[in-house]
């Protein structure tokens, strides 16, 4: 199973279960920006603790590995857990949606996109991908996040709602990073 097939499997499972979700992280960054290698899929999911067992059953062993206890903890306290596809070495990072203004906004702004082979999925908007990448950069300082943001701005260009990003950058204390990103994008 390759990354596209794994994404399609995950999306079908989430939609069959009726769970709200959005694809984010590097898969969304590649969709809106420039191609690069990734071996994981990041998905934000609204997963009530009462639905964890049902969720885990959608990814049966031995084809998949899901730590039921880790999934339950994440659903109860927030955070994330993994779904691993051992045969391919691929993994899905399942990030539990939080009841915050930003998570509510990005779930409401999710965009339905065609991912090939008849697979449609809800993706985070390009703007929300940029905002999360700025948060990841602030947390860890990895240059890859700045490269990803610059790639999204380069490829998606005029379609980006910069006022939306500026508003959230202000709310989340990311103005300095946003300013640096804009300078970087202006002088590649």
Q: What percentage of the residues does DSSP assign to strands (E)? A: 15-25%
Profile the largest sheet.
5 strands, mixed
Secondary-structure-based class equals alpha+beta
> Judging by the overall fold, what is the CATH architecture of the largest domain?
2-Layer Sandwich
Q: CATH first level of the largest domain: which class?
A: Alpha Beta
Distance between the termini: 37 Å
Unreliable stretches covering 5 or more consecutive residues: none
Compressed to H and E, one letter per element, the order equals: HEHEHEHEEHEEHHHH
Number of helices: 9
Instruction: Provide the CATH topology of the largest domain.
Output: Beta Polymerase, domain 2
Cα Rg: 17 Å
Could you characterize what this model shows?
It is a single chain. The chain is of the alpha+beta class and about 190 residues long. It has two domains: about 5-125, Beta Polymerase, domain 2, CATH 3.30.460; about 125-185, no CATH class. The chain has helices spanning about 5-15, 25-30, 50-55, 70-75, 100-110, 125-140, 145-155, 160-170, 175-185, and strands at about 20-25, 40-45, 65, 80-85, 90-95, 110-115, 120-125. Strands 1-2-5-4-3 form a five-stranded mixed beta sheet. A two-stranded antiparallel sheet has the order 6-7. It is globular.
Short description:
By secondary structure, the protein is α+β, with helices and mostly antiparallel strands. The protein has two domains: 3-124, Beta Polymerase, domain 2 (2-Layer Sandwich), CATH 3.30.460; 127-186, no CATH class. Helices cover 52% and strands 18% of the residues.
